[in-house]
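Entry 14. Structure prediction run on the chain below.
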Amino acid sequence: MDRELVLAVLAALLGGVALTLAGWWPAGAPDLSGGRAAERQAWRRLWLPFVPALFTLAALAGWALNEPADAERVPNLLIWGALPFTAVFLRAAWRALRSLQTRTTGLPAATVGLLRPRVLVSPRIVQALDPAALAAALEHEQAHARHWDPLRLWLAQIGTDLLWPWPAAGNRQQRWKEALEFARDDEARLGGVAGADLAAAIVAALRLTQSAALPGVATLGADEAFLKRRVARLLQPLGAQAQQRQGSTVWMLLPALGIGLALLAGTTFGEPLVRTLFAVA
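Output returned:
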């Protein structure tokens, strides 16, 4: 059997097992204070369950570096074991491709475009808002565009689908999306927008549409429970948490270091471990 095919089977099986074991990681309590720091924390929690799978795939890549092109045959038991995880991966890929065709017509205001974010505003919301509220809505959506949030929303949906069917994955995604809106509200207010004007724009947008949130689209809409918390927060003075600066990114080096170590371990110990796995199966 070709080395690449063996690698694909092992990646689906072992990577899928790693994702399944880590997918239960609880979402944690929502951070009602909001702010950019809370959004970054929720974003990290969204992707934390993928770290074991990344280490597993790195170790398999290290094994493949020393494996001859004509690898030994994978036992049928392992192939059958990889099929459920492959189905989950294919489902996530299908949903990701289908979301790219999502129609945004009818949305009052939205930020769209994965690689070139742009703000769309419907004539209905323009007519429904006074100039100050309209400027607030535009500033909020432009904050989404500056941070490439449509792309991040699309990737977050893919990550959540890869952890199906764990409910905690959807909860983590929802926590992050709420923190994201709080963070963009804060950024708009730091840019000079009045909280009351932005609250008026959000309420008007919700009245114009009751459609669910779309993957890869950042909108002003929200469910009613979250809307109440968001509006109440906007009507309060801007807190100190909104003005926190970008935190240190040193923590991003830790996964990279772990991947490097996993690659080295796979190169050194991958062959005996894979042979043992094949012998057991």
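Residues 3-280 form one domain.
Filed with the rest of this week's runs.
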